[in-house]
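Supplementary Note 3. Input sequence used for the single-chain structure prediction.
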Amino acid sequence: MKIVALDAATLGADIDLSPIRVLGDLVAYDVSVEEEIPERVENADVILVNKLKMNERTLHGAKNLKLILETATGYDNIDTAYCAMRGIAVCNVPAYSTDSVAQVTLSMALALTTHLFAYRDHVNSGAYTKEGVANRLSPVYHEISSMTWGVVGGGNIGRRVAEIAKALGCRVLVCRKSVETVFENADLDTLCREADIISLHVPLTPETKGMITKERIGMMKRNAILINVARGAVCDEAALAEAIERGELGGLGVDVFATEPFSAEHPFSYIMHRENVCLTPHMAWGASEARARCLGTCAENMKAFFAGERQNRVV
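The predicted structure, written as discrete structure tokens, is reproduced below.
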């Protein structure tokens, strides 16, 4: 059985691929570009993929393909309708990165609310030493327990973040599809108006694409902090950059981008060095433990499929 890993580098150089390797003849490519995919998967029975587009253009010649193992929870990179038409099964990995993403979300929230980068830069620049004053308290920061934290998305990650926010003493608002029974419900517009911290934890779907519009950004408090660890395309990225430049948003933490990596001409390129901006390279999901869980579940998904069982099937 031939298994092809198309973008193994996205799992990290430290991750052992042996849970997959023992299941067949594994050919692992660190990186693939779209033009290379058809030839690389031509004889594949199974594809292991994270970010690359799986659609008719890339899969048309994969005559033996039976299964795609998505090494993530989100699978918007896969044309599921095309796979269903071809009889190609698709499995994802739910819930593996909950603690990892929640940890990075919290890290961004604490760093931005505390103006940690500004205080660090004050010391690193030598100003602290030169001024001769024992402490500096500008910019002013506030206790997170005095704030309202709005969580957009009520899945595993959103729920964990809501629990953390509550433990820190925040008032917690949750915007989700189904009725919220533990935390205070809010529609998206209300959440945008009332929250001091807004964190996004939704999949990319036709309903969520572009949901954080220029108008909704305009509803937010001028000192509000927005954190996006969902998908880049759920936000109007240009409008976010503009709000930061104009001082109409208190802080911005982003780990995901509509195009990854983003170009030198991207609106975020012009704000990335500001002390109230924290941009990270789509790493929130990737704690070592989370990546090991992810790969282990992919192996279990593959075993289940060839045993005639349904496990984490999305197609």
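The two ends are 21 Å apart (CA to CA). The chain is about 30% helix and 15% strand.
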